[in-house]
Specification:
By secondary structure, the protein is mostly helical. 84% of the residues lie in helices and 0% in strands. The protein has helices at 3-18, 22-38, 42-56, 60-72, 76-92.
Amino acid sequence: MSPYAAILKRKCWGALNRLPFVGFQASALLFLGACYVHTGKINEGIQTCERAIQLVGWIPNSLSLLGHVYTMAGRTGEAQKVIEELQGFAEKA
């Protein structure tokens, strides 16, 4: 990891720990997870998205990103479970 990336990561995590509301923290974690995925850090992206879901539960916005991350990591079984959950939400709408 480059020195710049290490500083950025430290500052991001410090900012996340100061967020006052769980919803804001979960949103920040989801965006951070997406950043990890798009920079090739798939496993960190999965862990970060899973941490967000632990905070807010299985809601459509967080699930859709987690499913995307699972797909990019080749974890098709887990991605399929997420799709089924999302289909359940869609049927209730």
